[in-house]
Amino acid sequence: MTLRIIPERYLPHVQGLLRIATALLFLQHGTAKLFGVPHVDMFNGLKLFSLLGVGGAIELVGGALLLIGLFTRPVAFILSGEMAVAYFGFHAFQNFWPILNKGELAALYCFVFLFFAVAGPGKFAVDRA
What we know:
The chain is mainly alpha-helical and 129 residues long. It has helices spanning 11-35, 51-68, 72-91, 98-101, 104-119.
């Protein structure tokens, strides 16, 4: 006998809520880079056709698509790849441990997006309509 806090029939609902919450949090990275909202000093004067600018565009468009659940699997796969590049390209060389190289968030996003690429959007998604 398995103890279940939430019945299994609600898994798609929780999966959909995780997708929406993740997309809203991720979307902030794109808006901060491209529009300065919320303001992050590090992104002052960011050029659209720089590595961070292109990343911001991917985060903005990908985050919005993930939020509404449109093209979830391919978008999540691309976002997972972006976060793998962010981790291994910007964080991993600084220190082995993610907590010390400040790459925890990039690594976590990478695996959450990989989950959605494999499992799909869950409930509350345009893909399911």
